[in-house]
Design a protein that fits this description.
Length: 200
């Protein structure tokens, strides 16, 4: 038979474990709602899931207007980790590029390619509700300066493609090779795993 102290300790452990399980289930439900909206392309309603700090610094209009690069097809959550009121959600995405310049490459075949990347998102518990933390994005130039290979969806590369779209095919190919040699840290092929499409 358990002593009173042992029974109390067991009850507390079960209570804390239940609370943690409840918090995780709430987070998974909230995250699924948010990511489902992203697949639907419903950026307007996604805004309500952002953390308070993000909503203070970014109006809804700005948030909606920045979502123009990719068509998000599906996702899969692989892991959830909660530390007090902060959580990490790991997931993988499948997407297609929808930037106007991408649609002009190889008669649109380039944009039809399904690509993928993995990411880790941060969520915070605010007034009992889990909210998504939108981290400020670095520009393609800033990311390249840090030595990162910037995905093909970067504004720099698309502006370059637009500038040569009227040239003959052989001349376009030559220009692309020149551009690659001048920008060794900027990719001109499919983004690698772990590299999401760059927002303009």
């Amino acid at each position: 038979m358990l002593s009173r102290a042992a029974a109390w300790s067991l009850g507390l452990a079960l209570l804390l474990g239940g609370c943690q399980g409840s918090r995780e289930s709430q987070l998974r439900k909230r995250a699924k709602e948010f990511y489902d909206l992203k697949v639907e392309g419903n950026w307007k309603d996604m805004y309500a899931y952002l953390d308070a700090n993000t909503r203070r610094r970014m109006p809804r209009f700005n948030y909606v207007m920045m979502q123009t690069v990719a068509d998000y097809l599906s996702y899969e959550i692989s892991a959830v980790q909660i530390e007090e009121d902060v959580a990490k959600v790991k997931l993988g995405w499948k997407y297609k590029l929808i930037h106007p310049a991408a649609l002009q490459v190889d008669e649109g075949k380039f944009a039809e390619e399904v690509r993928g990347y993995d990411q880790e998102d941060e969520w915070v518990l605010e007034d009992g509700v889990w909210n998504y933390v939108l981290k400020p994005a670095l520009s393609p130039a800033q990311r390249a300066k840090q030595g990162e290979q910037v995905p093909v969806a970067s504004r720099d590369f698309f502006e370059f493609l637009q500038s040569i779209q009227d040239l003959p095919p052989d001349e376009r190919k030559r220009k692309v090779e020149e551009w690659r040699s001048q920008h060794p840290n900027l990719m001109t092929s499919a983004p690698p795993a772990g590299a999401p499409p760059t927002q303009p």
